[in-house]
Amino acid sequence: MRILIIGGTAFVGRHIAAAAVDRGHDVTLFHRGKTGSGLFPQARHLTGDRDEDLSALADGSWDATLDMCAFFPRQVRSLAAALDGRGGRYVFISSVSAYSPSVPPNYDESGPLAEIGEGEPTEVTNENYGWLKVACEQTATGLFGPETTIIRPTYVIGPYDRSYRFTWWVDRLARGGQVLAPGSPDDPAQVIDAADMGDWTISLLEKSITGTFHAVSPEPPFGFGQMLEAIAAEVAPPGTELVWVPSDFLLAHDVDGAALPLWAEGEADGANMSTANPAAAFAAGLAPRPLRQTVADIAAAEPDARTARPGIGLAPEREAEILAAWSAAGRKS
Predict the structure, then answer these.
(1) Burial category of 17 from C-beta neighbours within 10 Å (exposed 0-12, middle 13-18, buried 19 and up)
(2) Which of 35, 195, 320, 331 is deepest in the core (most CB within 10 A)?
């Protein structure tokens, strides 16, 4: 197949591009040339900024277009105009953040979506990210037709994850000792391995499967404690101890979700967002690897594939301070 990937050189797109190349497809990557421009020499590279200049897409036609990085409906509209019917089937990478915070546990793809706000913002924020994804989905379906495929992933993890959120936990547990674990072990958690998502996304094209799917794993119920235990089982030295500290105590001590990544800060609103039902994706061929295997892949990755991100994670001295305060409060770990 002739596959056009908008993006494809950073993280999620990188793994999808790798799957397409490895499976023998004719791949074209459109990107800004700022990240991973030397990747995939087998592919054709077109350089441009989707917000300013799509002229590189003026020639050529493709069987499918995979869009990694549309955050605003205007980006979907401009891409559709630039391709002018030459892009084939359109696959949009959305997010489970597209759902309303009121979704019930184990919700499927028909769950209530976030309410679209007024106008079209110029910047993405935590407050508008979800409804902008909904607006992009609707714009895509309107412009590219009912064969549009929408993939809604949860937290995507694996080597080259520039967010460093899950990877921080791998690095932290590998250091051992007393590890501050936020909230409750039963707080919902879901992730998806980027390589598994990439391989499956390309398989959807190969099998002409369309629709809307959750790219999430494991199926609920699965807790934050189980996630940390899986990481610890792979990388933690003997004697490592998870010390669970309630969310209200952490918030009172000015600890947030950047300091302890993937923690929902104890918010009841949206507590079910990490309980998406993956049955439709599993039936369509998504086969996530065991979480411990992803942890092993991250731990074994080259340094440039697991670079720390400033502002993500709790500094060791700050962690020790919070644990001491928790112990002094007379609470039991």
Answers:
(1) buried
(2) 195
Note whether 96 and 155 are within 8 A (CB). no
* C-alpha to C-alpha distances, 141 to 77, 84, 89, nearest whole angstrom: 11, 15, 11
Single-letter amino acid, residue 198 = G
> Nearest CA to 48 among 59, 63, 64?
59
Q: How far apart are CA 317 and CA 242, in angstroms?
A: 17
Burial of 254 (0-12, 13-18, 19+ CB in 10 A): exposed
Q: How far is CA 31 from CA 14, 36, 57, 183, 250, in A?
A: 11, 9, 11, 39, 40
Task: Flag whether the pTM goes above 0.85.
Answer: yes
- E strands in the chain: 2-6, 26-31, 44-47, 64-67, 89-93, 149-153, 155-157, 178-182, 191-193, 212-215, 241-245
Alpha-carbon separation of residue 267 from 103, 226, 259, 270, 271 (angstroms): 14, 20, 16, 7, 6
pLDDT level of residue 329 (50, 70, 90 thresholds): very high
Q: Is 331 helix (H, G, I), strand (E, B) or coil?
A: coil
Spatial CA neighbour of 253 closest among 154, 171, 327, 170: 327
Question: Which tens digit of pLDDT belongs to each residue from 7-24?
Answer: 989 999 999 999 999 999
Note the residue count of the chain. Answer: 333
Q: Could you tell me the two tokens for 263?
A: 């923690």
